[in-house]
Structure formats: structure tokens, C-alpha cells
Amino acid sequence: MEYTHLGRSGLSVSRLCLGTMNFGPQTTEADSHSIMDSAHASGINYFDTANRYGTTPGETEEIIGRWFAKGGRREKTVLATKLYGDMSDWPNGGKLSALNIRRALDASLSRLQTDYIDIYQFHHVDRDTPWDEIWQAMETAVAQGKILYAGSSNFAGWHIATAQAEARKRNFTGLISEQSIYNLLKREVELEVIPAAVGNGLGIIPWSPLNGGLLGGVVRKQNEGKRRLEGRSAEMLETNREAIEGYEAFADELGHEPGDIALAWLLHQPAVTAPIIGPRTQEQLDAAIRALDVSLDAAALAKLDELFPGHKPAPEDYAW
User: What is the DSSP secondary structure assignment for residue 240, as one 8-state letter?
Assistant: First the structure.
């Protein structure tokens, strides 16, 4: 396993981040524990979750907490969780007010059976709460030893820039990471999010690296009767069918599985710290780890850009 620093911090994390969103809804607790053990055995030390994950909110954090309680696991794990979504139907049960940050953090610590969170992340920007209030609450949590770092998710570039400017006024570290949807099919973050993150010292943590499976050999699986798409995924496949078919043929030419190529491409992007993989099964975890051994040369990267054109940074992308 390779490790790198998360953004401008001194925190060392694995080049793959284990996403846990399927733990509970799609994967039994026993299998979830086994997958986490296997991730550690493979050298993955970076785990991501959120307080809303689970068949009911909080379930996934509880599954991870019971895994930590077995002993010898928490100290090996760089743990990231998130807050924002409503955890109750009562006022102040969500978003980023100082009150909710305090309550949500304590609740996550209890469910996770730990006394600190390595990276406490804002799952979405809160346009109604001033940054002075947000950063004051986070500074308090750091002083209490309950969190070490702050991160964002689904922020626009100007949200990152504003958050960092306000943190600097307070001599506070601010954000060290941004989780965004980023893959060969979804490259809009190249316009402004990635430049803002790089300029402010944040590591990019891509979620949905296979774009819901569309980059995981979906055409072949459909032809073999192993996959059936509906709704938005089916529409996106039809819109991009020519490119996806060409991509799967190119993966065959390279001698790799399509999903391995998609993950390897992200790992070749200089701003990317670690894609989030969200395995439902041990086999899916093994497949993701396999991508670490895929090397793409300049010609292969150029071919992928041809199949799935990306963006130059703004404003050069659309203006002289």
C-alpha cells in the first residue's frame, strides 16, 4: 500500500479510502467487519463514514463502533465522518450551527465508540450559518480533543476559498480535504473545485469513482445478463453509450478490468489523495485494491481524455 499526506497536513493516509455507506443497508454487520479487517490487512488505514449512513441514520457508525470495540483497530484507523443532514425532525437537528456541531459530534463519538474523530467533515455547505460560528464551534472541538482536522464535501470552489479565508482570519487551520464526485464521466470539478482545493492546500477525495457502476464494465454485464439499469443510470448510459463501449474495448486492449482503469485514472490525477471505494462484498474490495497495480502511460491517459473529455481550469476552459 502507498501512503500520502492528506492535503497540506502531516496526516498519512492510504491511496484508497474505504467508504462504508453500504454497511448496514447492503452489507451485513458480520461481512462489514470482515471487509474492514481485510482493508487493514491490505494496508488501507483511511475509513470514511457519515452520521446519516445506514438503513436508519447512525446505523453505519454503530457498526464501525462495534468493530472498534473488538480492540486493536481504532489506533490503526484514520477515521473520517460527516455531519449536515437532519438526524431528527426537531429544529437544530441538522446543518452546521454551533449547536448541531456540538450535538452531532458527541452523538457520532458515542456511536463510533471512540473519543476523537480524525477528520470531521461538512457533508454540504450551510448557506444559513456564518463561518465565524462554524469555525468557533470547530475550534472548540479541536481544543477539547474531540476532532483533529476539518474537511468538506460537495463544496463549490468559492465555498472552499471563502471557508479558508475566514479560517485564516482566526489563525485556524480550516479545511484539509474536499470530497467531490469525480470520475471519467463526471469531471466538472476540474473547472474550479480542484484549483480552489490545490490553491488552499486541500486533498481531493473523489466519491463515486465508477459513477454508480457505469465505469465498471456495465455494457459487458448487460450483454451477459448480469446487470440491469433503470432511471437516471439507464439514461446516462444511453447518452454516453458510444464512449463507454469504447472505454470497455480500450480496457480489454490494456488487459485490465474497466473498473481498475477508472480507479487507476483517478490515482494518476495529481490533486487526488485517495478515491473512496464503497465495497458491498469482499470481492469488490479485492477488485479495488487491484487497481493500485495498474500503471497508465501518457498515451493511455490521452486516450481516456479523448473518450471522456475533461475541463481546463476556469476561466481558460470557456474564455481566452
Answer: T
pLDDT at residue 21 is higher than 90: yes
Architecture of domain 3-214+259-295: Alpha-Beta Barrel (3.20)
For residue 230, count CB atoms less than 10 angstroms from its CB and return exposed for 0-12, middle for 13-18, buried for 19 or more: exposed
CA pseudo-torsion sign 40, 42, 48, 53: negative
For the chain, what are the domain ranges? 3-214+259-295
Report d(CA 300, CA 226) in Å as an integer: 28
Q: Which is the catalytic residue, given 46, 53, 182, 247?
A: 53
Instruction: Answer yes or no: 46 catalytic.
Output: no
Is residue 218 scored above 90 in pLDDT?
no
pLDDT attached to residue 19: 98
Q: Which three cell numbers stand for residue 53?
A: 449512513
d(CA 155, CA 68): 30
Grid cell 480496457 in the structure block, residue: 251
65 by DSSP, 3-state: which? helix
